[in-house]
Specification:
- By secondary structure, the chain is of the alpha+beta class.
- It has one domain.
- Helix content is 31%, strand content 32%.
- The protein has two helices and four strands, in the order ββββαα.
- A hairpin with a 3-residue loop joins β1 (2-7) and β2 (11-15).
- It is globular and about 35 Å long.
- 16% of the residues are buried.
- The mean pLDDT is 95.
């Protein structure tokens, strides 16, 4: 995977070998774990328009309610 953007101890944005854009978010408090989701076309467009601020908001939302993104988890 190709790293597009990283905010240490928060999230990383990658492009996989098929061109999918994946957001990997660091979650948890006592025990840390990552949740990786495939971004939708609208989310990719929002990132291209808004940059880091969009990723900050999306990562915060994923961290606080990652179950609502379960259908887009990367296995």
């Amino acid at each position: 995977m190709k790293n597009i953007f990283t905010k240490k101890w928060n999230y990383s944005l990658y492009e996989d070998e098929n061109g999918a854009i994946i957001l990997s978010v660091l979650c948890g408090t006592v025990g840390l774990f990552e949740r990786e989701i495939v971004l939708s076309e609208n989310e990719v467009n929002s990132f291209n328009a808004m940059g880091e601020s969009f990723l900050d908001e999306l990562a915060h939302d994923v961290r606080n309610d990652y179950e609502k993104y379960k259908s887009r988890f990367v296995e």
